[in-house]
Amino acid sequence: MTVYASATLPAESPVHFRDLVAAEWIKLRSQRSTPWTFAFTALVVIGSAVMAARADYANFPSYSPAEQQLHGFSLSDAFPLVGCLTLMVVAASTGAAAIVSEYSSGLIRTTTVAVPARGAVVLAKAVVTAAVWALVGAITSTASFAVSQAILDGRHAAVSISDPGALPALLAATLLAPVCALIGLGLGVLIRHSIATTVTAIVTLVMLPQFFSTQRRLTAEIHHAMVLSAWQRLTQAYGPPQYASSLYTPFIESWIVYAVWPLVALVLALIVVRCRDV
Amino acid sequence: MTHRGDCPHCWRVIEVNGLTKRYGAKTAVDNLSFTVRSGHVTGFLGPNGAGKTTTMRVILGLDAPTAGTTTVGGAPFRGYRRGLRHAGALLDAQQVHSGRSATTHLWALARSNGIPRRRVDEVLNEVGLTDVAGQRVGGYSLGMKQRLGIATALLGDPPVLVFDEPINGMDPEGVLWVRHLFRRLAAEGRTVFLSSHLMSEMANTADQLVVIGRGRLVAAEPLDSFAARSTRPSVAVRTPHPAQLAALLTSAGAQVEPDGPAGDAQLVVVGLPVERIAELAFDNQVLLHEVTVRAGSLEEAFMRLTADSIEYPAGQPR
Description:
heterodimer, B: 26% strand
């Protein structure tokens, strides 16, 4: 009697991280809800830009000559708040679902036996989640920008992509999706429960900024450290800000906020997933 | 996979050393040690709540031990970067994503371990799910999910296979198939380790036993020696004078217990051969209506061994 040696499979191949990424992509792609989620998100985000642009198009004759000249609303019309909030909520909940669905079904045990290196699984999920949502973000933000400016062009009030602030705004609207999806994923690893994770993500991303006033120095600093505030700062920068004050944050701080939130969420997730029983 | 030591037959493939696992104040496994060898089907037995699943979870690197160590193929399982080539496991057949097809479920797992696509079709064929492979797993019966779980375990063609209650929910045909499969896998030189709370099931499948109760080792030996050591043949006697016969047999050194429904004068006698019982009855002119020799059952032996370690006994105030 000898110890079993596989005759069916070739000798164990070198371990590649890209195999894990490919596996996570298969999982995401095979979920029936995935294309519907993306289609719904794109519809709401682009639709909200169309509605905002059409409203300003209709009201344009009633604006003062100075407003008509400056048309400071144009860039904001491409990225209205309602579209942003929808994108944040959907991206964060699907990012969370990438891991929470494995915890709630128990599939995580099979996954962990297949890949005992748990951190690598979380990282692979992060790569797929970020890549897919960056793509969705790029498509929706580009389309929102193009369609809204095409409408406003009818009043000669369109913004060009080469205008100051337009490119950062487009980039910020694109990156909002992967940033929120990664925060959702990180929270999902930490909380493991689907409803609790979604509620936490929504409270953190959407509600929390409302609790910190921009009128006082300390609370304004906290307010500006929020993802939603960073998005507002980056997408509504075109033209002189109406509420500019000494508390107004420079661009770079908003980009840092974009980077730090998902990074912290992921690092916490990687630490916790290592020490906890599956 | 290479041989270790001079005696591959003796190679301890799964090793559990002084394993203790506590969840808060509750000790699920208490200083447990045993080894599982290759080329055998080893049954892992214990009443519900004895710590079988916990032990398997620690072996597979899902839970960290509070104390002690476990190894698979000579190393802690958590240390492997990819697991499917080292061990295959079925822990709970229900733990699948119900929205995916069997093919996609297996393909994602295979891909993560660099296993070629053709292997997915091979294992689906092996477990007989080829025809339904494209359907959502949510629509599968428990028996079909068990088959999918076995396919998952076989995916990496591993030398070690761990199954937690694999027979639950299977139809009789499935049970026969799975027993045959386990024996074949062991005959190929693999290590097959399966848990059950039913001794009768193990008696038909396993040739080695590890028995635990309340997280502690009760027995670890070949099934044959467990049977020889633990089973007690008994004699059932039906008589119109049970009290008189019981007194006679007890004074001759037997253990006598009433058996069957009340009023039916049947006794079960342990510790005296049937010839001696008949002689005693004849010499003392006690009428016997029926004498039946009962071979000791493994189930009974198992029940007796684990009786004092049952976590949730029925019919007793808690």
